[in-house]
Batch of 3 targets.
Target 1
Amino acid sequence: MASPIRILTAVPICDGHDSAINTINLEFIRHGIEVVYLGYHRSVGDIVRAAIQEDVRAIGISSYNGGHIEFFAEVIALLRKRGANDIKVFGGGGGTITHEDAAAMERKGVDNIFFAGTSLTEMTDYVRKHYGKPRGKRSRPKSPDQELAHKLTAIEDAYTAGRKRSTRNAQSKIRNPQGVHPPRRAIRNTKVIGFTGPGGAGKTTLIDELVLRFLNRSPKGRIAILSHDPSVIGEGALLGDRATMINSQNDRVFMRSMATRGQAGGLSPATHDCLTLLARSGFDYVIIETVGTGQEAMPFQKNGIVDQTVLVMNPDYGSRLQLQKIVMLDLADIVVVNKSDLQRARTAHTEIEQRLEQNRRNQRLIDTVAKRHRDPGADELFELISRGSK
Amino acid sequence: MSKLGQVVESIEKYNKFVLDQVKRARTDEEFGRGLLGRWNDIKAKIPATRTPTGLPLPRLALPEIDEAGEIARYLFGEGLPGEFPFLNGAYREMYLEPIREIQSFEKDGEPPQRPARPPLPQAEEPTRLFSGLMLAEDTNERFHYLTQHQRTHRLSTAFDGPTLYGIDSDADGVFGKIGEGGVAIDTVEDMVRLYDGFDLGSPNFSASMTISGPAPIIMAMYIAAAKRRFGPKVVPKLRGTIQADIFKEVQAQNETIFPIEASLRFLTDMVEFTTQEMPRWYPISISGYHIGEAGSTPVQQAAYTLSNGFAYAEMFAARGIPVDQFGPRLSFFLDCGLDVEYIALARVSRRIWAIGMRDVFGAGPRAQLFKLHTQTSGRSLIAAEFKNNLTRTAAELILAYMNATNSCHSNSADEPFTTPSEEWIRLAAHGQAILLEESGIFKHTMNMLSGSPGMKAVERSVETAILDEFREIERLGGVLAAVEDRYQRSQIQNAAHRYEQQIYDGIRPIIGLNRYRNGAEDVPEVKLVRTPRKKQQLQVDRLAKFKKKNAEKAKLALDKLADVVERGENCFPILLEAVEVCSLGQITGRLQEVVGRFRPMV
């Protein structure tokens, strides 16, 4: 089976018109396309960096605030400069992009502009027809990040095509993925941290806050994020974490969004191999984030390549009895009660504290309000993670 | 219970009060007689007018009732124009022309006598046209063009994308956006150029600025520009409005640059300053327009706008600003489309606001007024057979004035394509003049179209639906909690999706699009207004010069600003100093270092 088409969608800088793109994204994923959504008000640099790291087939830009001729041209110019000529660009902007504009944009390398009145079906068909063919031989990567991105794609494709099969537990043992060789540069002391927890607990926001602290603390350090979102019926997926992670759109952050592609448990069949590769690629930290998980999920254990595990909880987990059933509470090194400004948070803290004491594993419990700038709880978590040795 | 919950109770209580008064008028003879007496008195005092054809008409039309209970229902439930609860209008006479001399039409064949002097235009034209393009001097030229025939100069300013997002014209990747869709403002020097030639301290001048995320910084630039031109004494004389509506940005328009709580704090800092130092300024325009344009239903638009308004009132009161000081400085901005709710949406909103402000916030008469600017719906305009947009806008204008809006912007028919061009702007402005000056619909008689059974049915239905929305927001913990929960955002997106689906399914007819298509080429010849690269480069060069000139002073000013923000003091006075030497982007950037950036809700 061929891999789903991966594309990136975004709205240009100084443009908040996200209603069209939201509708289009949903239509794409319903038709088996994996969409990495970057959000609105996004710069050329952010878009191109994300497209290369995510190794998408094409970028779809929805522009309603003018300046589209320059903006699209700058995206294409930067893609070329970075050696990513194989990433195509298409877009639309209702009535704001005229036929004349579109002709000028196409001369500058844009594949296609959709005009007002184009049906969603036409757009989906276009993407499938033009970006769905198997890739030809790939040109030489121009940067380590691009090389890494290409290799991650190769791993994902191998799994989806059935050339490789998923081991039941992604962390069972470290294997050198076939055909994927870690970069030859010196392996640094990379620390791998796993984040899991129920959907809506604030994992993504919390990780982004940690990234901000890391970038401020370590002026030359690099960090990688492997983020997961579920594939929906129809096999598409909305990979939307980048839209929330405003601080992680940075040259010192390598981020890759993966769809679960049919595997339960919060990770993708290709996760283990991708993570192994990232862990050997010279980053200071590699953060892996699962999809929102339920009670039984046990996405990673410490005997694998994950050095430290963080469970992010929402204070609204239900009754005390529900708490007893959460398997990850026994395994996580650090448990975070996020949204600790909510009324229920104090009770949650007490109940979880009790639950952890029973484990006698010296697990840490931290309260955070990730949405708050300079949250002391997020500071504490950052210190804990950066202090703890590998 | 939050203040919003109390507002719901106050409306229910008031509605019950009206019913009680009706009952009392029918059972308590003396009370009933008193009401009849008052009613006859009101009727006797209504001045008469004559139309150009000589037809006599009263300047205020009242329902034909002579029974005490019905009189009570009208006077307490609706109120005369200009009287609580203001259903029929915030003011007594609104758009009425001055009383005509009674002319003789009786002698056959003789032309009517010309009045000694032509009737004066009304005190202030309600027309306020939104514009902004290219660089400050280009917009300035447009402002002068628009106001050349107007006695009062009411300017409405649109800013370009970089300005709306608080970044500078030299920022990465924004070059093509400079001066697109609005005017580019980076520094106080641009602000000086923008309003050049207008007397900012004159009672006949007012400036409206449509900007929210960086509103306090832009406000500070406006004040600084005015001081540069007219000295410090001009400040208390400044008249105008700045949008500064953070809630609706988060709910609908996505132009938020600081986290919500920090944004609200900067806003309150500004409001505290302007209510004290600039008594004629409207420091916030609580806007449903963008909520409507983002796809909400009319009821959602009114409900979210009003609840946002009550939340701001609660916030300003909590800062210690007296309600009678900030209340009269709040203004509202609604969308007017073609759905039937628009027959009465603003009427109902005005009533809810007045009752809530009086009974929950203890506001005096001036702080109860829902002062409204309306804009016809941009979303209702389409590219296909775009000249139909003239008719759409005309119908919307009638609805807007039926709601007794205080001022109005009519959209240009070429809006689906570009920043409106002069030809279509002129037609849009003339549309209003034709309606208000040429036609007799609104100039002779107040209440000309109020109170029809259909309108009343819409009023009742809309009010009930708005209160239901209030209850839902209250259940979620109030406006701020609901906003952080993405409640309004999701509701709006859902409604937008349904609207598009209805167009697609043909349930919602759009002439020229899903009905009566003529099959011709959809994109017409419209002359596009685009900012030339040379001008964009000029803006970047000017900014570089400004930054170079002020480099050292800017650093000091930014440090001082950051310090005050860290300490939690009102930062507006320091902003006023900072804008003298810092650009918009420099200030935004420094503030974001202290309070963080807004994380989009997706």
Note: Confidence is low (pLDDT under 50) at residues 168-186 of chain A.
Target 2
Amino acid sequence: MPSRDFMPTPDPLSSGGFQSRLRVTATPALLPTWLRAVLLVAATVILCSCRNPEAGTRQTVHPGAGSRQAASNDPFRDRDRDAAYALMKPSHRRPGIGSEADHAAALAHVNEWQTQPASPASPILLASAEAPAPSGAAATQRVPGVPLEMPAPSVEMLPDHTVFHDRMEVANAATGCWCPGCAPGQYKLPPSDEVLCDGGDDGLPAVVIRDGTVAGVELEDTVAHYKTQDGQTVIQPTNEVCLYAPRFGSVRQVSGASMNVTRRDVQGLATDLAPSGAEVQREVSTALQNVQPLARASDRPPSLLRNRQQGGGLENEQGISWATAREAALANLQSVRFVLIDNREQPLEVGGMVNAIHWTHDLGVQIAIGTQKAQVVAGDRQAALLYRFEESPEPRLAVCKLADRASAHPGDVVRFALQYANVGNRPISELTIIDNLTTRLEYVEGSQVSDRPADFSAEINEGGSLILRWALPQPLQPGERGLIHFDCRVR
Amino acid sequence: MTNDHMTTVRLSIDHRAAGVRVVGRVLLAVSAVLLLLQLLPPAAAAQERPVHRLYDPALPPGAIGSRRLIANGPLSGFFREEIQPVELRGPAGLRIAIAEEGAFGEPLAAPLLVGMNIGPVYRMRVTNIPYRPGVEVYPSLEVIDRLYPPAAKALEFPIPVDLTEEDLGLAANGLLVTRVIYVEDPQQATPVVGDPRKPSWLDVSRGEDPLAAAIHLGRPVAILRIGSRVPDFSGADAACLVAPHVTYFEPPGGYPEDAQP
């Protein structure tokens, strides 16, 4: 029992003080001190932790998917948001090599590469029959199921889509993914259950462990890792390629004789509720349904729609209107037409003169070494000008993943290509490209081809598909590039 | 026993320390309760059934699709005048007549590629069932969600609705067959090669909710109910024939040769 000894102070009024000890027994505590401290710490941890009440009832399949599943109670909204994330997701950028400018430069390099004519050494020409049309053509294209004039997007109408619009443009340009009805200001994203995506580095970021193994490459991930001259290991994910390939299933329930009784009950209820039901159906079947321009558009086969897009008259119209407008700006001036000076036209004339000077005047000598502008380190007071050009070591790898089609049915064979290039200024070595195929993509045995020597291996992954791995024994010099392609059957 | 000394003991009570002690005990009790609640299994979660808040199997046909139009989700921006391509498939020789504007239309050979609205219930009369001459069944189809195909690919990727010979036979024997067609979630897909002409399906027992099962496997897009009760169009069933106009399409690649009778 806990007790405390109190030593009373001597009473100065008493004679000579005393030495008696008073023993006072305190109230016993319910729990030991250490247990109370433990309880307080546990409660603090519980209160401070942001626990999702549904986390324990949901099964986490994928690190990324698990977090999506616990987002809300509406799976449709979650999947729609998933689609936004899936299609907009740029490749994971590593510090130092993943800035927007670097990404844009790499894309420009790859785009320039793609526009080059295919050489006999690279037999495949990836492409493009189903690639998204240019923006000008898309504006005049009539898509079944999508009205020609969509209302202006609003937050209420497109809950989670417009936020990512700008980034989606970049993602589409990088991945080649389409977005249905994709036009500035309007587009719809397919839910992630209708598309098969492969590439990128979703979920946990990939890392190279000391023994050379790579961790964090989950299903659908495609990454490349290499070593720089100073011994650093760098991981570069590819872009994400998405195919529209929905796979359907059904759940059947057969009700027996006992359910016939239930059906009669339901029928009786339906009779009671007939006015409300009929009202809803009339709303759909009235003039709104009968006058539907979209249905007329859908009646026409796609071939007719394509023919309508190919009219060259549109281009001519644009060119003529533009040229007329430019001439009118100068030809209507009084000083030009009638050689009369009008003070009201002086601002326009002065502006035109300044423009002419800007177009004709050389403000100075620009010196560039290679593609980099040189800096003046010495003034012009000396006899000669000294320019200095510094080149910083920037090993960089661009990896682009492409698919030869944008949509596929189960059973179709899709050809994927992995294009890689050393876009830095230092050689890289021990380049390895890893593609962890998603469950619904089945690698066609013996279909992989690499235009550079590469050690290919495959192993089964957790999704019932394969992890494809290409290890390049030779270093990749700056400016060098390579191409790998392989076929997959859509399950 | 006598005391020789009188001792005065002054005991001062520290009210602030007492207050702290009371607060500490309250915190201790709260901590114990919180810890206990965390250790116990959540009773509500254990009893929660995997059903969707919008779905209920007891709802009459048409209610689910109408609710989907109201709910905010991927159907945002999908207007009522837009149509969702649906492919009605069945055994060779099957004839399907879809009711629209008060009467059944002309019986056409399966498969049919039609455009339907999301929400209303489309009634059909199926005849020429293999090995069952003269037997008619009356399926109803309710499209409850849409697809998002690429531009100009809508007709290549319709919602497949299979009127299998087995289901038609069960319905002809007086049973009610309910099929919930869903888009499979790729994250939960099985690593088998699928056949677009024969989608996979599974059975649920009578006590289970097929909608909930379909939601666990993917996203439901249509509900097919096949029964054999002959509707009384002169009575209460007359409203069943009120359905929007159906748009018939020719498949982009044409039908396979073995699909036509």
Note: The first helix of chain A runs from residue 33 to 48.
Target 3
Amino acid sequence: MSRDAWNEQLRRGALEFAILLTLAPARRYGLEIIRHLEAFTDLVITEGTIYPLLARLTRDGLLQAEWSASEAAHPRKYYRVTARGRRRLAEMAEHWRDFSAKIDRLLEAAGGTR
Amino acid sequence: MTLSDTGEARVRGYLYVLERSLRSSLPPAVVTDAVREVESHIRERVAETEPLPDERAAVERLLAALGTPTRVARGYSLELSVEEALTTGRVTLRHAHAGAWRRDRRRVVGRAAVPRARPDGARPHAQGGPCLAPLDSH
């Protein structure tokens, strides 16, 4: 696997987790989610890839979506994390910490990579 | 930035292609909702863009950041395909291709691609080559 392909898989795998984290404190609409992700990460390469993922997370019951026409000149679709989504987020956070700690230990055991 | 008729036509054209592309794989209600959401994204981006002498370049930059309409439509199709495959357990070529980048795909394709035992009774991939494990083993 090329370096780019590996990076891409890692990025895509983390995106679902990052979206749930972004929405955990408050509801946000699509562009707000993208801006937040761009402020903290480089996970969003193509903005349009966020919307299909949001749609699936909504179908999976992890997010709840609702249109609002009162807050801008055009309607916005807001997303919030459901109770099920919060449970999934807690599991993902725990798994992520455990996973990254193990990889860190491996890196340390390998004497770093430089 | 407020779009001229030309800029507006470009945005309309983008949304038209997106809608046509989505129609082939998604239910009408989902298509309507998806197009509405992408249009909302574009309107928001246009509104926050400072007026520029070259409106065309600004609009093209904005749409390029979003991705081509066919690419956005493919994203919806891929998410739906992987979901269907995992829900039903059925795998089609389209499904397998759909999840090429997702962790879930390993399970889906794994089931579809488990090699049959060879006539001589040897286990496939016994030489240590790459082998996709059966779904149940993941």
Note: The mean pLDDT of chain A is 93.
